[in-house]
Amino acid sequence: MLNKNEMNSVAKDLYAAINTALQRAGAEVSAAEAQGVLCGFLCASLDSNSNAWIASLLPAIEDGDVLAQQTQQLLIKLQGFYREQLNSSDFQFALLLPDDEQALQQRLIELTRWCDGFTLGLSVGGLSQQRSFALSQESQEFLTDVLKFSDLETELAENEEHETAYMELVEYLKVGILTLYEDCHPAQILPALGIQ
User: pTM for the full model?
Assistant: First the structure.
């Protein structure tokens, strides 16, 4: 089991690798937005093995387009990794966002992109408005908040108050994802907790 610092280090490395792969494949999304799409899809989809979410990120992959095919394989591996994270009993989960060395404005831009991606992933995964009414109040509030977060003001002064607010927002998103996933997939999460 990774500790929080190790998990953040893994996320930092993944963020850079996914960004590079997406750029090389000609995708017009960042790693943050791609992970948002993936997480929304995994929460909403009843078939977590489907690769439908990838089609929303990558342009049509032509035969012989090695970079796009490699990126697709990387995204499939990422899907398996995050599916395991969401089904894990240790609740380790990290958002793919720029590290804290980046300017707050850049981190906020990527956070809003993550939220946009998450919303798209919910749609690609098939979370209808009717199905969302069956979710817990916490999950419904989380979905409303994610929509609001996609319109956050990103031009904030770099100060301790804004840094703290950013970190709290990231933690809120992590907990919200886990809550929503558990709401949508109770039969998958209960065995991981040792409940049959």
Answer: 0.89
